[in-house]
Amino acid sequence: RTWHLRGCLLGLQVLAYNRHTYETVAQLLLVTIVPAPGGEPPYQGEFLVGNRNVEELLPAAMQEMFLQAAAGVWERDDLHVINVTSTLDRGGRVPLPIEGRKEGVYVKVGSGGDFSSCLVSATSPQSRFRCSLGEQPLASCYDTFAPHFTVRWCNLTLLQVRPSPTPPGPTWGPGVLEEEGDFQPPTEVPPQDLLPGFLVTLLVPLAVAALLCLLLGHLMCCRREGV
């Protein structure tokens, strides 16, 4: 998987394979990135659909059908799909090829309005406790997803996104160079005499090396037996 970003145009190299014949095909997909007009929706809900694969929820017609079903339990008409993710990308296992089992899909839906009482009750602590016991969660509304979508209510996630504060812009200091101007240092640095430092750096190691050589020569030549 390779990608490159140039401005608002994103190029994705997609490699796909046929599950039955194992034939592969590569295609370069160009995506134009446009920011959402209203920004990120403040209220987001993620549903786990157990009877669908990810490619079945990618068409716009199927997403519109899912949004209509979600509007029945959310009680909002401004819903839109934010993300569609396969359960295999969340650590799920590949289903057995029997009885037409599906992989499962996580569908994240966003809205500008608050969650309904039905969704809040489905994610309440009492509902989570019932799910831990293997029982059905609490839901105070009719499941409008059935029979087209099998939603696993125990995996429902509600998220309220709060707008992040805008970071302050850069503060220009007094040393910014004006346009078409010459750089003037803020203070003049007096010239320094570097010769003493150079002599100290060079002569001190040489003097130490000479003393060590004299000491080593004295020990080796003048301290031998019979001399």
From TrEMBL:
<feature type="transmembrane region" description="Helical">
    <location>
        <begin position="194"/>
        <end position="216"/>
    </location>
</feature>
<dbReference type="InterPro" id="IPR048347">
    <property type="entry name" value="Sarcoglycan_C"/>
</dbReference>
<keyword id="KW-0472">Membrane</keyword>
<dbReference type="Pfam" id="PF20989">
    <property type="entry name" value="Sarcoglycan_2_C"/>
</dbReference>
<feature type="domain" description="Sarcoglycan alpha/epsilon second">
    <location>
        <begin position="42"/>
        <end position="158"/>
    </location>
</feature>
<protein>
    <submittedName>
        <fullName>SGCA protein</fullName>
    </submittedName>
</protein>
<keyword id="KW-0812">Transmembrane</keyword>
<dbReference type="InterPro" id="IPR008908">
    <property type="entry name" value="Sarcoglycan_alpha/epsilon"/>
</dbReference>
<keyword id="KW-1133">Transmembrane helix</keyword>
<dbReference type="GO" id="GO:0016012">
    <property type="term" value="C:sarcoglycan complex"/>
</dbReference>
